[in-house]
Amino acid sequence: YTNYEGLKTAFQxxxxxxxxxxxxFHDLRHEAISRLVESRKYSIPEMMLITxxxxxxxxxxxxxLRAKDLHR
Length: 72
Known about the structure:
This protein is mostly helical. Helix content is 67%, strand content 0%. It has helices at residues 4-17, 25-39, 44-51, 56-62, 67-70.
């Protein structure tokens, strides 16, 4: 799909097919960013470049870091 409407239509169809009508596109962004942070493959500045955040505080809203997750 090369345009917004096409992407929107494809996403709507996928939600229906998955029987998950409550999921929205922003939920996927949140999940993807959380997974990238959990992977520990990128520094905060790299994550900001990937996600398009200009302020680390914005990026941290997407992460749900817990102390027990950091100690491995």
